[in-house]
Design goal:
The chain is α/β, with parallel strands linked by helices. The longest helix is centred in the last third of the chain and has 18 residues. Helix 4 packs across helix 5, helix 5 packs across helix 7 and helix 7 runs parallel beside helix 8. It starts with a strand and ends with a helix. It folds into two domains: about 200 residues, P-loop containing nucleotide triphosphate hydrolases (Rossmann fold, 3-Layer(aba) Sandwich), CATH 3.40.50.300; about 70 residues, no CATH class. The strands form two sheets. It has a six-stranded mixed beta sheet with strand order 6-7-8-3-9-10, with helices on both faces. A four-stranded antiparallel beta sheet has the order 2-1-4-5, with helices on one face. About 35% of the residues lie in helices and about 25% in strands. One of its GO terms (biological process) is peptide transport.
Length: about 280
Amino acid sequence: MSALLEVKDLRIAFHSRGEANEVVHGIDFTVGGDGKTVAILGESGSGKSVTCLALTKLLPPDSTCSVQGEILFEGKNVLTMSADEVRCLRGEGIAYIFQEPSASLNPVFTVGHQIAEAVKLHRPDISDTKGRVIELLDLVGIRDAAKRYKAYPHEMSGGMQQRVMIAMALACEPKLLVADEPTTALDVTIQAQIMNLLRDLRAKLGMSIVLITHNFGIVKGFADEVIVMYRGDIVEHGPVEEVLNNPQHPYTKALIACIPKLGVKQRRLTTIDQEMAAAE
């Protein structure tokens, strides 16, 4: 099956005081349209989130940020799309689940109102907007969906707020879902529930997923391929089992070595020096 998303020689730079600071250095990767999951893994500041924001031109304007290369979604270059084309792409083609739903949801509107906005904008063919929103809330496992339609974000737990964000992302039936650390600030039990929900929705709806994370445990149990990023570069890329069982890059080896193991006492975390991390 042909690739749903192709990223070629992507370079992202932020501008300040006449100088350009490049934070992503010519990376390449693809995501198939076959309902698979590609995880982008790395420490904070490695370039994971800015890479995914660039997919739908969500980064700041050209005066403060420049994006070069190609981002092909279904064969069309996102970077050369008009504003109207990008507006249609967001939600209908590529949708996002951002980390920390409490900061993403508007506290002064009900969750039903906020999901309905996405439905009205991208699916004007749906006449019963409220009915569609209740269907979505039910789809993501929120009990008493009709009652919760009128709830405000502060009246929901963190796990329920994240389910609302997932419902909002699914409102337009996207072909690609970008999940940016969807389990941040959630306890372990709720993390497992959210990841199981995403797994079920992926199978039911046939959408592909890009998962941004720093958690190897989530990658192992959920993703098909993994991209390891370090300081704006892709240092390793391959099937999850291959990368986990036979890592080639010192940075990947160090990340795996930092995973706590039951019954094993480790006084110091594994570290790598800068020259070693830059090795090909």
